[in-house]
C-alpha cells in the first residue's frame, strides 16, 4: 500500500515537473471538439462526412508560437478516432503525435485531451484524422501559428488572414472506400475537388464569396492540400501571389501566377486587392492526371463599409500549367530567406546544415505487391501494419519485442519486389545527421511526409540517384519543410538531424498507399532517458493493447 502511494506520489511529482517544463508561462488556448458524422452534399449528392462542432472542414486553430493548445476531443463517431497535427513537430513529445504508432485511438463515445505546443514554430499547418481512412470523409482543418509580437516577420501585417483547404474528394463514404482497399482494390479517380468544403459554381451569380477583400489592402492566404491522391494547382483570376512562407519557413518572396500544392503541403501568399473592383475566382485543379477536376471559390472586393464593389466574376478562368517540368522548375525557385527571423530571434540561416557531415544514408523505395492475395504498398519491401499496441507505448513499457522488431528494412535495398506485412520500425541514433533519398521509378508523382522534424530538401532531379549527385545539392538555402514531392522517374534528397527523441512516422501522402502500409516509424531514443530529451508520458494517456493495465514505467528524470 505504502509502496503504491509512494509510486503514485512519485509519478505525480514527476508529471508536475514535466508540467512545469512543458508549459512554462506560455498562454493556454482551450478547444472542445464534438466530432460527429453529418450529411452534406458538397458534390450535389448527399453523403456522410466527419464534422467537428458541426463544421466541415473543421474549425481553424489560430495560435502563436509556444502557445499551449488544449484540445478536448469527444469522439461521437461509431469507430476509433485519432487526430494528427501535420507539421507540428511535437518536440520531445511524440506522446501527442496522434498517429496509430504513437497513441491509442479515442474509443467511440469517449473523449481525450491533447496538449501540445507549436514550440519554436511559425507558419501554416493543418490537422487530420489519422486512422481508418477517415481523412477521406473530412475531420481536417487549418492550424496556423503566428509569430510572437517581439519577433519580426519579413512582411507588413496583412489586413486579414484566410485559410484555403483544397483537396480531391470522393462521394462514397470513408467506410465504403476502406472496404474497397481492404479487398485489395484501388479507388480509381476521385469524383471532384473541394475548396473549403465546396466545389463552387462558375457563372453562378448568386455564389457567396469565400472571402472579402478591401480595395487596396493586402491579405495573407494560406493554401494547404488536404486531399488524398492528387497534386493541385492553385491560382487567382487576375491576381499574382507573393509567396512568403511554406511548411513553416519564411521564404524568399518570389511572385507567382499559380502554385503547385502537392499532397500534405501548405503555402502562404500575400495577395493585394489592386485590380478592377469586382468578384474574382480562386481556382484549383488537378495536376499530372489524365482527368481534369477543379473547384472554384469567390473573393469579393468590398469598400471600407463592407459593401460589395463591382460585378460578378468573369467566366474566363486562368489555365493550369502543363507538365511536371514546370512544377520541378517551380520547386527549384524556392529559397529559404536566410536573414529572416525564425520563430526565435535568431536568423533562419544560422543553422548551417550544409556544413554537417552525413552519418547515414537511407534510400526509400516504393514496393507494391500482393500479401495474402491482396494488394499492399510498402517501403523497401515491408508493408507496415498497425497493431493493437502503439509502437511508442510498447517501447516505453518495455514490451517492444512482443510488438515489433527494429530495423525491418535495410538502408540500401537491392530487392524491392518481394513484400512482407509487419510493423516497420527503423531505429536512429539520437542527434545523427542523416540523408534520405526518395527514389521514384514510377510514372506517377509521389509525395512524402516526416513527422517530428523539418528537413532540408537539397535536390530533386530526374533519373537515378548516385553519391556523385551530392555535388548538385543546395547546401545553402533549401527551404526547411516537412513534406516533399518526388516527380516521376526522379529522386529527391533530404537532410535532417534526428534531434527530437520519440517515435516518428515517415509516410506517403498518397492516402490509399498510406492505408495499405507505405509508411514506417523512426524510433529515436535518447540514451540518457532524460527529461531534457523527452517528456514523460502524460498522465491522461489512453492505454490499450498489451500495455493496458501495466504499471507505469519509472519516469524520466531531469
Ligand atoms: C455532439 O453532437 C451530437 C450530435 O449533434 C449531440 O448529440 C451531442 O450532445 C454533442 N455532444 C457534446 C458534448 O456537445
Ligand atoms: C489570431 O490570433 C492573433 C494573435 O492572438 C490575433 O491577432 C488575430 O486577430 C487572430 N486572428 C483571427 C482570424 O482570429
Ligand atoms: C474528458 O472531458 C472531461 C470534461 O471536459 C474532462 O474533465 C476530462 O479530463 C476529459 N478526459 C480526457 C481523458 O481528456
Ligand atoms: C528576407 O528577410 C529579411 C528580414 O526580414 C527582409 O528584410 C528581406 O526583404 C527578405 N528577403 C527576401 C528576398 O524576401
Ligand atoms: C567532416 O568530414 C571531413 C572529411 O572526413 C573532416 O575533415 C571534417 O572534419 C568533418 N567535419 C565535421 C564538422 O565533423
Ligand atoms: C537499435 O536498437 C536496438 C535495441 O535498442 C539496439 O540494440 C541497436 O544498437 C540499435 N541500432 C541502431 C543503429 O541504433
Ligand atoms: C548524456 O548525458 C551525458 C552527461 O550529462 C552527456 O555528456 C551526454 O552528452 C548526453 N548524451 C546525449 C546524447 O545527450
UniProtKB/TrEMBL annotation:
Residues 1-24 form the signal peptide. Transmembrane segments: none annotated. The keyword Signal applies. Keywords: Signal. GO terms for molecular function: copper ion binding; oxidoreductase activity. Residues 34-146, 160-302, 389-527 form the Plastocyanin-like domain. Belongs to the multicopper oxidase family. This is Uncharacterized protein.
Amino acid at each position: 500500500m505504502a509502496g503504491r502511494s509512494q509510486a503514485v506520489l512519485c509519478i505525480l511529482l514527476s508529471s508536475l515537473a514535466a508540467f512545469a517544463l512543458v508549459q512554462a508561462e506560455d498562454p493556454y488556448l482551450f478547444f472542445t471538439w464534438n466530432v460527429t458524422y453529418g450529411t452534406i452534399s458538397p458534390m450535389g449528392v448527399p453523403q456522410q462526412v466527419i464534422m467537428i462542432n458541426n463544421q466541415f472542414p473543421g474549425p481553424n486553430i489560430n495560435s502563436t508560437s509556444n502557445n499551449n493548445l488544449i484540445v478536448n476531443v469527444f469522439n461521437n463517431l461509431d469507430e476509433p478516432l485519432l487526430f494528427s497535427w501535420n507539421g507540428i513537430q511535437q518536440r520531445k513529445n511524440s506522446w501527442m503525435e496522434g498517429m496509430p504508432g504513437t497513441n491509442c485511438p479515442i474509443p467511440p463515445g469517449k473523449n481525450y485531451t491533447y496538449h501540445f505546443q507549436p514550440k519554436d514554430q511559425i507558419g501554416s499547418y493543418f490537422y487530420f484524422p489519422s486512422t481508418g481512412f477517415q481523412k477521406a470523409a473530412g475531420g481536417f482543418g487549418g492550424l496556423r501559428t503566428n509569430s510572437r509580437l517581439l519577433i519580426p516577420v519579413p512582411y507588413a501585417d496583412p489586413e486579414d488572414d484566410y485559410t484555403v483547404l483544397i483537396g480531391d474528394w470522393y462521394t462514397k463514404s470513408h467506410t465504403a472506400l476502406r472496404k474497397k482497399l481492404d479487398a485489395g482494390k484501388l479507388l480509381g479517380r476521385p469524383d471532384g475537388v473541394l475548396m473549403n468544403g465546396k466545389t463552387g459554381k462558375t457563372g453562378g451569380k448568386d455564389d457567396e464569396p469565400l472571402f472579402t477583400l478591401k480595395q487596396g489592402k493586402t491579405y495573407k492566404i494560406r493554401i494547404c492540400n488536404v486531399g488524398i491522391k492528387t497534386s493541385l494547382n492553385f491560382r487567382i483570376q487576375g491576381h499574382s501571389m507573393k509567396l512568403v512562407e511554406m511548411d513553416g519557413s519564411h521564404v524568399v518572396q518570389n511572385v507567382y501566377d499559380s502554385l503547385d500544392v502537392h499532397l500534405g503541403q501548405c503555402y502562404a501568399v500575400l495577395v493585394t486587392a489592386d485590380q478592377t473592383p469586382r468578384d474574382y475566382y480562386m481556382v484549383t485543379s488537378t495536376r499530372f492526371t489524365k482527368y481534369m477536376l477543379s473547384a472554384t471559390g469567390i473573393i469579393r472586393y468590398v469598400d471600407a463599409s463592407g459593401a460589395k464593389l463591382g460585378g460578378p466574376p468573369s467566366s474566363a478562368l486562368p489555365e493550369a500549367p502543363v507538365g511536371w517540368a514546370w512544377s520541378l522548375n517551380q520547386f527549384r525557385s524556392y529559397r529559404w530567406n536566410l536573414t529572416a527571423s525564425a520563430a526565435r530571434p535568431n536568423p533562419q540561416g544560422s543553422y548551417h546544415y550544409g556544413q554537417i557531415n552525413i552519418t547515414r544514408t537511407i534510400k526509400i523505395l516504393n514496393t507494391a505487391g500482393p500479401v495474402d492475395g491482396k494488394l499492399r504498398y510498402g517501403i523497401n519491401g515491408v508493408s507496415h501494419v498497425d497493431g493493437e499496441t502503439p509502437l511508442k507505448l510498447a517501447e516505453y513499457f518495455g514490451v517492444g519485442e512482443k510488438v515489433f522488431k527494429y530495423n525491418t528494412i535495410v538502408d540500401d535495398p537491392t530487392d524491392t519486389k518481394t513484400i512482407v506485412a509487419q510493423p516497420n520500425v527503423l531505429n536512429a541514433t539520437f542527434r545523427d545527421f542523416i540523408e534520405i533519398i526518395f527514389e521514384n521509378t514510377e510514372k506517377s508523382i509521389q509525395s512524402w511526409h516526416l513527422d517530428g522534424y523539418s528537413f532540408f530538401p537539397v535536390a530533386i532531379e530526374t533519373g537515378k540517384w548516385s553519391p556523385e549527385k551530392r555535388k548538385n545539392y543546395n547546401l545553402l538555402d533549401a527551404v526547411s519543410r516537412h513534406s516533399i514531392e518526388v516527380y516521376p522517374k526522379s529522386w529527391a534528397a533530404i537532410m535532417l538531424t534526428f534531434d527530437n527523441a520519440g517515435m516518428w512516422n515517415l509516410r506517403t501522402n498518397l492516402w490509399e498507399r498510406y492505408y495499405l502500409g507505405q509508411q514506417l516509424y523512426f524510433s529515436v531514443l535518447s540514451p540518457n532517458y532524460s527529461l531534457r530529451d523527452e517528456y514523460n508520458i502524460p498522465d491522461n494517456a489512453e492505454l490499450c493493447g498489451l500495455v493496458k493495465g501495466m504499471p507505469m514505467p519509472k519516469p524520466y528524470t531531469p
